[in-house]
Specification:
The complex is a heterotrimer of chains A (about 130), B (about 750) and C (about 80).
Chain A (H helix, E strand, L loop, with lengths): L10 H12 L23 H8 L1 H9 L1 H4 L4 H5 L20 H6 L31
Chain B lengths: L1 H19 L7 H4 L9 E6 L8 E7 L2 E7 L11 H4 L2 H4 L9 E4 L2 E4 L2 H19 L4 E5 L5 H15 L4 E3 L1 H4 L1 H11 L16 E5 L3 H4 L1 H13 L4 E5 L12 E3 L6 H14 L5 H7 E5 L2 E4 L1 H9 L3 H8 L3 H12 L5 E5 L1 H4 L4 H15 L8 E4 L6 H6 L7 E2 L3 E2 L3 H11 L14 H9 L5 E5 L3 H4 L3 H8 L5 E6 L12 E4 L8 E4 L4 E5 L12 H11 L11 H12 L11 H6 L3 E2 L40 E4 L16 E6 L15 H4 L6 E4 L1 H7 L6 E5 L4 E8 L7 E5 L27 E7 L1
Parallel strand pairs in B: 6-7, 6-17, 8-9, 8-13, 9-10, 11-23, 13-14, 17-18, 18-19, 24-28, 25-27
Antiparallel strand pairs in B: 1-2, 2-3, 4-5, 4-19, 11-12, 15-16, 20-21, 21-22, 24-29, 25-28, 26-27, 26-29
Helix pairs in contact in B: 6-23, 6-24, 8-17, 11-14, 11-15, 11-17, 14-15, 20-22
Chain C lengths: L1 E10 L4 H9 L4 E6 L4 E8 L2 H14 L3 E12 L1
The chains are: A mainly alpha (about 130), B alpha/beta (about 750), C alpha+beta (about 80).
Chain lengths: ~130, ~750, ~80
């Protein structure tokens, strides 16, 4: 959450990093598909840990407009435990981008999501590469 | 096929663009922007949190709040911050209080409304009978609706006849009020949010807008993106998220910014960046309390305040101060200063505010698009309800003062009470009010919509006072337990936000109506109803004869009429239609006033006034440039308490967290207060990330987990202010500014040890 | 391959109509309406996303009355 780099590695980060290391190659996310997010230490922020365990999405988000404006992880991904959403839906965008989110229901967008064009973490206002972002 | 597909795409593209500019009605099924939540109606309202006052729509389904969406026709252009977006969850939180509570055998137990209210009334009556009207008090909130605050003010000042009515804006905005009143004669900014869109230079002093006012921060970022060359200067000891957009971040020892502000003025004068004509026409000069000085006196005063001297005192670089002054003062550029608690929560808070105004007055950079001193407010209705409504112990509604005989007479007439009803002596300001509870002078205290058991400075002392033998404390609150309701003798369940109707007034003199979206939860009642009930039980029912909040508003339109706050053209119907209106707005058709004191914009400036501006707030029709030297904080570090202690916000939480902690997304993100410190300090103390550290001042101590951050300032520790378990206010200082009576939350001395 | 995009062009207050007139003359841009104040809806047709981005930057640079160019919906044909 701070603009500066964090110093040291918090406990939780270490814990998740350990889980990550134990996962098979290619299973990049620290949380298994569909699984709940593990419980967290209340003194920790999402970004504090994810800057280290998922540095690429973190950096894309942090450097993008949403990162600058403080639209943080919880807005799209929800809470921990069963409240966690791995793949956010457009309704999470609707609080601020109501008309754009509503426009997703026109036939043209069938099968597409906001993230087909806007990189899900950079969330850049301009179009992303064809086929959506990875 | 290509043609068809292409046509389809063009149509869709055009539709999306037209929809985005509001020129295309989307089909009904698509109009609800949050399809998953499936709201079946959308009700216009305002965010419950900060003083930005973002417009939004509340999505309701089956009588429940299920979603919110930003109001694109309001100043926030449809955007909400993460707290606002997550508002629906707080409405049905497990901590909602659904029935009254009464303390019996030292336990709070459920009671009926009748039991609770008759107990409150009998205790208040007995205290008044025995000790006179000043044996009771009221502590209100910049979060209550305007109509609610007005009812409390009228009941206490004109009914009970005590001026012991204050509110939490004393802890956040009192120094800004003092600054505006001493410089311009009237409270509230002359500028507006629109100034951000025109500013070439923005000076953010003691404001972490990125976390405290995210949507205004976004507007600042957009301005910077749209106008290349826009300069942002952030004056803050910490390298905050706001400093990410700074072209120049000036860090300094907390509590020394008066020296820096005077040094900026020094450079402006020395380098000829002042507007002599403007000064001659519009500025007076003063020292102490009187405007008894001259332009020459001021220049002589500034001689000593060189950037080098400021560097010596503050640790800021003289060269940076010069750069800041040169950007600010460049002729033809619009300069905007914005500040928050870093300046206000200080024993020299009013002076610091004066010094910001000085910069604008001597350069004439005021009352022009993009040029203004704009104080940012912390609470959604500190301005509209408490400041404008005059619900502080020294104020009467709409710029009137308790000590002014004429003002009292005006209010007595408007309120239909006999001459001499309103006491001529100001009541107790917040810290004094709680001290009076401590020493038994105030026997009954009614606390509405706020959490002083957590938010007072040196809070340990006042927590004890609230539980003092013989003290009777009523708390009206939507949630229980809070750190205040746990101390109460009676807790009244208050309706929350979308469960009631009323007006909020935010930073820029913008008033907006929150319409009722849903019924109150459980047995909860709007504070407006509770106060009318209490008035009737105390024999003052005639003073509050209102059936609805709308009735109160009708009376308010008569009370503000003819004052410098005149919004008498702002009928309820107009508020319903509009997406926020800025006063002065004295007639039905008036569009409202973006820039106050400015000819052609402010209706209170005569159309034939010879100059572009008229500071009509003061009798001499000038604004005062004050000679205010730097003075240190009430408590500075020494050998025993070697570190500076300061507190502030994180974006996820708001105030004491009563609401945001009831949202699970936010509860799991940054909810526990930590102590942030510089790596060098951590090394000396032998602590690392996650360690527990005890932070102790002369007043109190609390233990926090350590977070080592290199954006911290060496020699200073910073603690998040929202945690109800780890109380950041046990160490803070309850020394107050002698003018504003606002406490110095932002600077005190502590020692930190590994726990 | 062609990119077709809905675009909102934001102008200084009150200048939407005047700017819309100027935009109408640009190849690849078809103006579909304005809000009478500061927003114009248009459809862009061009080679690729980069062309769209370039047009946005060019408009911001060349026309002082334009304060923003925001694609609202971007699709590809071919």
């Amino acid at each position: 959450m701070m603009p500066s780099r964090r110093v040291g590695t918090p406990l939780v980060a270490l814990l998740v990093a350990t889980l990550l290391a134990a996962a098979p190659l290619g299973a990049a996310p620290p949380v298994a598909k569909g699984a709940a997010h593990p419980a967290v230490d209340a003194a920790e922020s999402c970004e504090g840990c994810h800057a280290e365990v998922t540095p690429k999405p973190y950096q894309l988000w942090f450097d993008g407009r949403h990162g600058l404006m403080g639209v943080k992880c919880v807005v799209c991904h929800g809470s921990v435990g069963s409240g966690f959403t791995r793949k956010p839906k457009a309704d999470r965008c609707g609080g601020c981008h109501g008309e754009n989110a509503a426009a997703m229901s026109v036939p043209f967008f069938k099968g597409k999501s906001c993230f087909s064009c806007h990189h899900p973490h950079a969330l850049n206002p301009h179009v992303a590469a064809a086929g959506g972002a990875k | 096929m290509t043609m068809n597909r292409r046509e389809l795409m063009e149509t869709a593209a055009a539709a999306a663009a037209l929809a985005a500019i509001g020129k295309l009605e989307l089909p009904a099924h698509a109009a609800a922007p949050v399809p998953a939540a499936g709201a079946d109606k959308w009700v216009k309202s305002v965010c419950r949190y900060c003083g930005t006052g973002c417009g939004l729509f509340v999505g309701v389904k089956d009588g429940k709040v299920v979603a919110v969406k930003g109001d694109k026709d309001n100043h926030n252009k449809g955007f909400l911050c993460l707290k606002g977006f997550l508002l629906p969850e707080i409405m049905s939180a497990p901590d909602r209080l659904l029935h009254p509570l009464i303390r019996k055998n030292d336990k709070l137990v459920p009671a009926t409304w009748e039991e609770a209210m008759s107990l409150v009334a009998s205790k208040f009556k007995a205290a008044i009978e025995k000790g006179g009207p000043d044996a009771v008090g009221f502590y209100g909130s910049g979060q209550a609706l305007t109509e609610e605050t007005y009812c409390a003010n009228k009941l206490f000042k004109a009914g009970i006849r005590t001026n012991n009515i204050d509110g939490n804006p004393r802890l956040c905005m009192a120094s800004a009020v003092g600054g505006y009143v001493t410089t311009f004669g009237k409270d509230e900014p002359m500028g507006c949010y629109d100034d951000i869109d025109h500013a070439d230079v923005m000076l953010l002093v003691g404001s972490n807008a990125a976390e405290a006012h995210p949507i205004l921060f976004q507007r600042i970022v957009r301005r910077k993106e749209a106008a290349k060359g826009t300069k942002i200067v952030v004056l803050d000891p910490r390298k905050t998220p706001t400093a990410r957009i700074a072209d120049l971040h000036i860090s300094f020892t907390a509590g020394t910014d008066l020296a820096i502000l005077n040094a900026i003025a020094h450079v402006l004068v020395k380098e000829g960046m002042v507007d002599e004509e403007f000064v001659k026409a519009h500025a007076a000069f003063g020292e102490g309390a009187d405007a008894n000085k001259t332009w020459e006196d001021y220049k002589a005063f500034l001689e000593a305040w060189t950037p080098e001297k400021a560097e010596e005192i503050s640790g800021a670089k003289a060269a940076d101060i010069r750069t800041c002054a040169r950007w600010f003062g460049e002729k033809g550029k619009a300069s905007l200063t914005m500040w928050t608690m870093g300046l206000n929560q200080r024993t020299k808070g009013v002076w610091a505010n004066n010094l910001c105004h000085n910069l604008h007055l001597i350069t004439g950079k005021i009352g022009l698009p993009g040029s203004s001193p704009l104080s940012l407010t912390g609470q959604p209705n500190a301005c509209g309800g408490v400041r404008d409504g005059g619900a502080l112990s020294h104020l009467l509604p709409y710029g009137r003062l308790v000590v002014n005989e004429k003002h009292r007479a005006e209010m007595e007439k408007l309120w239909g009470v006999p001459e001499g009803t309103i006491q001529p002596k100001p009541g107790l300001a917040t810290v004094d009010l709680f001290r009076a509870v401590e020493d038994g002078k105030v026997k009954c205290l009614y606390i509405m919509c706020t959490n002083p058991g957590q938010s007072m400075p040196n809070v340990g002392r006042y927590r004890k006072a609230l539980r003092r033998e013989g003290a009777f404390v009523v708390v009206s609150e939507a949630f229980h337990p809070t750190r205040t309701s746990e101390l109460a003798d009676v807790v009244l369940p208050a309706a929350l936000w979308a469960e009631k109707e009323g007006v909020y007034g935010c930073t820029e003199r913008r008033y907006q109506l929150l319409e009722q979206s849903v019924k109150p939860s459980g047995e909860a009642r709007p504070d407006f109803e509770i106060l009318c009930d209490l008035a009737a039980r105390l024999g003052h029912g005639k003073l509050l004869p209102f059936k609805t909040a709308s009735d109160v508003w009708a009376e308010l339109l008569t009370v503000c009429k003819g004052t410098a706050y005149d919004f008498s053209g702002m009928t309820r119907d107009r508020l319903k239609e509009s997406h926020g209106l800025l006063w002065p707005l004295p007639t039905a058709g008036h569009p409202g006033t973006k820039r106050r004191y400015v000819k052609g914009d402010d209706p209170l400036v005569p159309a034939d006034h010879p100059q572009r501006i008229l500071f009509y707030g003061r009798p001499d029709r000038k604004a005062v440039v004050w000679l205010r030297p730097h003075q240190p904080a009430a408590e500075v570090p020494d050998a025993e308490y070697p570190l500076i202690y300061t507190t502030g916000r994180v974006i996820e939480h708001w105030h004491t967290g009563t609401m945001t902690r009831n949202c699970k997304e936010l509860r799991h993100a940054n909810a526990e207060a930590v102590v942030e410190m510089h790596p060098d300090d951590a090394k000396v103390l032998g602590v690392k990330n996650g360690d527990l550290a005890k932070v102790a001042s002369r007043r109190g101590a609390e233990t926090f987990k350590v977070r080592v951050i290199d954006g911290s300032r060496k020699g200073m520790v910073f603690v998040h202010m929202h945690d109800d378990k780890r109380l950041c206010n046990l160490p803070t200082n309850d020394a107050v500014d002698p003018i504003s009576k606002q406490p110095e939350f932002k600077v005190c001395a502590v020692k930190v040890t590994k726990a | 391959m062609t990119v077709i995009a809905g675009v909102v062009v934001e102008t200084l207050p009150g200048l939407a109509a005047a700017v819309a007139k100027r935009l109408g003359a640009l190849p690849g841009l078809s103006v579909r309406g304005d809000d009478g104040d500061r927003k114009i809806a248009a459809v862009f047709t061009g080679a690729d996303g980069a062309a769209l981005e370039a047009l946005g930057e060019e408009l911001l640079r060349a026309d002082e009355a334009i304060v923003g160019v925001f694609p609202t919906l971007v699709g590809r044909d071919g």
